[in-house]
Every structure is written in structure tokens, then in C-alpha cells.
Specification:
82 residues
Length: 82
């Protein structure tokens, strides 16, 4: 059973729905707020990523391991046979 307030609210919504022009629907203020929040979040993520990327060391290790490979092989213990 519907109360008087819900019946009154539904009649107002029905009349508002009839007054809208279905060809001129726009996102409105809520669409702008959502778009602005998403834009702000992307800006903050890019700023954070830039800060983290500055911390990364891009120097490559020498290929072939001439200096590093012989040192690690000299320090490795020999396997026991027995």
C-alpha cells in the first residue's frame, strides 16, 4: 500500500519526466563532477608515477660478465666429490 507522500512524490516525478526534452539530454553538473574527479585522479597517478620513475636506476650491467663473472666464479665453493 502506498502512502500519501510516496503518491505525491511519484506524481511530481511523472510530471517532471514529461517536461524533459529527450533530444536535449546533457550530463549536467553531476557529469562534470565525475569527469573532474577522474581527471584529478589521473593527474595524481601520473605525478606519483613520475616520482617513482625518478628513483629507478637505469644503468645497465655490462654484458658478458667479464669483470663480474670471474669474481663470482672465484668465490663459489667447489663441489665435494666423494
Amino acid at each position: 500500500m502506498m502512502s500519501a507522500t510516496s503518491t505525491l512524490a511519484l506524481t511530481h516525478f511523472v510530471t517532471l519526466a514529461d517536461s524533459f526534452d529527450k533530444d536535449k539530454v546533457t550530463p549536467g553538473v553531476l557529469g562534470f563532477i565525475v569527469f573532474a574527479v577522474i581527471g584529478g585522479a589521473v593527474w595524481l597517478l601520473m605525478k606519483s608515477m613520475n616520482k617513482h620513475m625518478k628513483k629507478v636506476d637505469f644503468e645497465e650491467q655490462p654484458e658478458g660478465g667479464e669483470a663480474g663473472g670471474t669474481a663470482s666464479a672465484a668465490q663459489a665453493p667447489e663441489p665435494k666429490t666423494g
